[in-house]
Write a structure and sequence with these properties.
- The structure is a single chain.
- The chain is an alpha+beta fold.
- It is 32% helix and 29% strand.
- Strands 1-2-3-5-4 form a 5-stranded mixed sheet. It has a 4-stranded antiparallel sheet with strand order 7-6-8-9, sandwiched between helices.
- A hairpin with a 7-residue loop joins β1 and β2.
- It comes from Sagittula salina.
Length: 238
């Protein structure tokens, strides 16, 4: 039934390679099927003005798609003089998601910026960015702990995200592009590793959905996130 031949509740193959850049305090290349995202985390001993003096840290994110991450070349947003609305929305989502897994008091007055650059897109780029972004964040925080710059681990729980939707009348897990482009219902589910919900984005795109279908999608999302958290923890322990 699925174009990829996967079962309804089957994730795409997931791999997370860490330490892929020389200079970033934390980095990884996450592959979810044919969606590949480079995630880096950078430490700065400063915070935005609106929390300066509060003793709290900040985690923020930037997101972008490389020109040939898609089937035809797209122009770099820098050449257009501004970011598009989709880009701004996604990077704000990534920042919100990652902050939900951080004790900002324990982080202290410093900022960690997570950059997510999509190398290749085949659906679910925001979900891959959040999942890989947490790995990069974890590695950067590990350096702070090892150096003694902080004494308490500020990361409460892993944060991961997965897409689910209704495709050909069936609830399916981890949409790739062929499914995403034709799904009657599309959703992104962001959870912590302890099961706490951070954000759910769901919309009917051609057909409405029932509470029963929504519950089915939530169940699939929980299964997918559990698998992603297992991959995250394995990656940061290598």
């Amino acid at each position: 039934m699925r174009p990829s031949g996967r079962d309804l509740s089957e994730m795409r193959a997931v791999s997370i390679e860490t330490g892929v850049t020389k200079h970033a305090e934390g980095s990884c290349l996450i592959r979810m099927g044919d969606t590949h995202v480079l995630c880096t985390a950078s430490l700065e001993e400063r915070v935005p003005p609106f929390i300066k003096g509060s003793g709290q840290g900040w985690v923020t994110a930037e997101y972008g798609m490389l020109p040939r991450s898609t089937s035809s070349r797209m122009r770099r947003e820098a050449t257009q003089g501004k970011q598009g609305g989709r880009t701004v929305e996604i990077q704000r989502l990534i920042g919100r998601a990652l902050r939900a897994g951080v004790d900002r008091n324990a982080l202290g007055e410093r900022q960690i910026t997570v950059d997510c650059d999509v190398i290749q897109a085949d659906g679910g780029t925001r979900c891959a960015s959040i999942t890989g972004g947490w790995v990069a964040l974890r590695l950067a925080v590990n350096k702070l702990l090892k150096a003694g710059d902080i004494v308490t681990d500020p990361l409460i729980s892993p944060v991961a995200a997965v897409s689910c939707g209704v495709y050909a009348g069936q609830a399916v897990l981890d949409l790739d592009y062929p499914e995403d482009s034709e799904a009657g219902v599309d959703g992104n589910f962001i959870l912590r590793g302890d099961g706490a919900l951070i954000e759910v984005q769901m919309s009917a795109e051609g057909s409405v959905f029932s509470r029963t279908q929504m519950d089915s999608l939530m169940g699939l999302a929980e299964k997918g996130v559990n698998e992603l958290v297992t991959a995250q923890l394995a990656a940061v322990q290598r």
